């Protein structure tokens, strides 16, 4: 398995499978007709601590068992899967090549160019490329996007899926999948959100991934070591709970009196500070001096008070993003529960959307 299917068009029944440090998320979409999508199923399953760390799968058996459980829990029959690679595990680069090359000539040129940007021997990497189109200021040349990752990292994810009885068909990049899901939501806005500079903050368990986009194209991306696990660990230490209980009660709000003042409010302040700092880094690292809209995603996005404090500190319109906005819902999907769960499924939704590319 390599990246040869990263940019290919697929329309077979597929499930999007997002593997993160905190758990597995699965999404299955279908075509509802007239340009509409339907959310057929979604499900999640937690992972033991340390099974996935820093984007690396450290315990294939534990992760494959979780994938098997989430597949069964979802009720899907689809076994073809789209998987995502963490952005930090993938090198992407836009290069310029001469136009009019044959497929074989283009592949040879890409390999020659790739050796300049990839700090590994080519036989150690999975490599793919996509011709974006003619260069604006030189129509005789074409712009090509290449993507490469260490084979062992790709093969670990493939091994997990296969051990769970699934067949990996496409290997995508998690940040690309998130942008695709957000792009579909942006299309529902007036003028499709054209001309707006949008900052997407995906607040995960340990890492916050920041993407700043203009008309769907990334202007700036980075990761910061901040996530919801900080609040979970505060709950564990303060109330003497087990990790799983602390995580569950954090989501339901079923915590002792004083939790909001002692733990939640400081965490929200820290989160708002991280967002503000990231925006300042964007301003100082690029020629841009404004952000029109902030979107929050990830498991922490729906924590009460987070949207308000981020909007207050940044003075920018802020909202929680639901990747399923505007979709029809399958009979097994509970709408009320989906509202709470949806922001954590941005990547899984984007992966599942590859079915319709």
TrEMBL record:
Pfam families: PilM_2. Residues 14-182 form the SHS2 domain. InterPro entries: ATPase_NBD, FtsA/MreB, PilM, SHS2_FtsA. It comes from the Bacteria. SUPFAM superfamilies: Actin-like ATPase domain. NCBIfam families: pilM. This is Type IV pilus assembly protein PilM.
């Amino acid at each position: 398995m390599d990246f040869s299917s990263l940019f290919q068009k697929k329309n077979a029944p597929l499930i999007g499978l997002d593997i993160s440090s905190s758990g597995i998320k699965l999404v299955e979409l279908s075509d509802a007709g007239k340009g509409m999508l339907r959310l057929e199923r979604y499900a999640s399953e937690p992972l033991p601590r340390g099974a996935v760390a820093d984007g690396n799968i450290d315990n294939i058996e534990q992760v494959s068992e979780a994938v098997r459980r989430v597949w069964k829990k979802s009720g899907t029959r689809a076994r073809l899967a789209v998987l995502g690679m963490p952005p930090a595990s993938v090198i992407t680069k836009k290069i310029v090549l001469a136009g009019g090359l044959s497929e074989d000539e283009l592949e040879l040129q890409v390999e020659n160019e790739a050796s300049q940007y990839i700090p590994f021997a080519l036989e150690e990497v999975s490599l793919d490329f996509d011709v974006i189109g003619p260069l604006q200021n030189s129509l005789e040349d074409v712009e090509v996007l290449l993507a490469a990752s260490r084979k062992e990292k790709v093969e670990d994810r493939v091994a997990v899926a296969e051990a769970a009885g699934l067949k990996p068909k496409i290997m995508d990049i998690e940040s690309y999948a998130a942008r695709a899901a957000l792009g579909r939501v942006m299309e529902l806005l007036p003028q499709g959100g054209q001309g707006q500079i949008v900052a997407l903050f995906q607040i995960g368990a340990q890492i916050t991934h920041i993407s700043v986009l203009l008309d769907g194209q990334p202007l700036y991306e980075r990761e910061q070591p901040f996530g919801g696990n900080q609040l979970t660990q505060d709950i564990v230490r303060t109330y003497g709970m087990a990790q799983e209980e602390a995580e569950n009660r954090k989501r339901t709000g079923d915590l002792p009196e004083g939790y909001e003042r002692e733990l939640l409010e400081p965490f929200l302040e820290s989160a708002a500070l991280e967002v503000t700092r990231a925006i300042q880094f964007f301003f100082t690292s690029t020629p841009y001096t404004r952000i029109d809209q902030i979107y929050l995603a990830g498991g922490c996005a729906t924590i009460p008070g987070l949207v308000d404090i981020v909007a207050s500190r940044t003075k920018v319109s802020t909202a929680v993003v639901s990747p399923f906005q505007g979709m029809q819902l399958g009979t097994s999907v509970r709408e009320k529960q989906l509202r709470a769960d949806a922001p954590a499924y941005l990547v899984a939704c984007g992966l599942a959307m590859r079915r319709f590319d």
